[in-house]
Amino acid sequence: MRTVTKETITAAFLAYCGDDTNPRLRFILEKLAHHLHDFARETGLTHAEWRKGLELLQKTGEITTPERNEYVLMSDVLGLSSLVDMINSPDIGTPSSVLGPFHILGAPDLPVGGDMRQDNDGAAVIVSGYVRTPQGTPIKGAEIEIWQTADNGLYSNQDEQQPEYNLRAHMVVGEDGLYRFSTVRPAPYTVPDDGPVGELLHATGRHPWRPSHLHFIITAPGYRTLVTEVFPSDDPYLDEDAVFGVRERLIMNYVEQTSLDARPDGLDIADRLTVPFFTVDFDFVLAEE
Ligand code: BEZ
Ligand code: FE
């Protein structure tokens, strides 16, 4: 197309794609060009605004390292990560949620009933539940990875004061599908806001807080891997998670226990537990592959 106009530029872009373009790539580029061009047309994007956007992308690249991916964080605070996650999540079973950047491989094995709390400060919590099918059958041998922040709102890989695998565990459930562990209440925390993502948040009057949560990855042969998080119902940031990870069905309750008689069975921490402590019950339902 020789004479390109505001109206024809989208079609011209598509016409430039060769016939042997992968059909899925063609479809994605078609939609991208359509929405991107409409975005510029509908906003009447100025040169200054266009440059500002490109500068934001440049700064995002400059601050990105293998340890800190500002692009992922940008996608998170724009709601894109959660949206992609929801689009690809089966309707059946426990909803998925964002993985986040603080997961590390190699968490130590913890038996069912084991103590992940160790020497950490903070209120003691016993978390229990079943890994099961949508029909209620226990999924024996399901593997669970758990990670969370300490009482100070930091993950072990953000805080030199914590041992490498602090508040991280890998558990294999038994015949009955039960998982159980003792831990501390995780704290709410802020996503990094000292870079371009922070600039965007501050410019739009947004805070960088996430509600406190426990992260889980659950795998079992024949079932879809579930990457998710569980949030307490009393968290002040539940309705304003900076990365849009909260789902109604991922909300749990801390139940305060004032008697040791309320200790669930089979806890390593049983003799060291003092009142009050909290219990949480949350089942994970895996969709078939
Ligand atoms: C997290 O839950 O660990 C997390 C998720 C997205 C951005 C930053 C942190
Ligand atoms: Fe997290």
Task: Describe, in plain words, how this protein is organized in 3D.
24% of the residues lie in helices and 20% in strands. It is α/β, with parallel strands linked by helices. It folds into two domains: 37 residues; 206 residues, Sandwich (Protocatechuate 3,4-Dioxygenase, subunit A). Strands 1, 2, 5, 11, 12 and 13 form a six-stranded mixed sheet that branches. It has a five-stranded mixed sheet with strand order 4-3-8-9-10, with no helix packed on it. α1 runs antiparallel to α2. 28% of the residues are buried. The protein binds benzoic acid and fe (iii) ion. The site of fe (iii) ion (FE) has 4 residues, from loops.
Full CATH superfamily name of the largest domain = Aromatic compound dioxygenase
Instruction: Give the total of domains.
Output: 2
- Count of individual beta strands: 13
Structural class designation: alpha/beta
Oligomer state equals: single chain
Question: Any chance you could write out the topology, listing elements then pairs?
Answer:
Layout: H1 9-16, H2 23-43, H3 47-63, H4 70-77, H5 80-87, E1 114-115, E2 124-132, E3 143-147, E4 168-172, E5 178-184, E6 189-190, H6 196-203, E7 209-210, E8 214-219, E9 226-232, E10 251-252, E11 255-257, E12 277-281, E13 284-285
Parallel strand pairs: 1-5, 2-12, 2-13, 9-10
Antiparallel strand pairs: 2-5, 3-4, 3-8, 6-7, 8-9, 11-12
Helix pairs in contact: 1-2
Bound molecules: benzoic acid (BEZ) and fe (iii) ion.
Fe (iii) ion is lined by residues 100, 102, 213, 215.
What does this entry show, briefly?
The chain is α/β, with parallel strands linked by helices and 289 residues long. 24% of the residues lie in helices and 20% in strands.
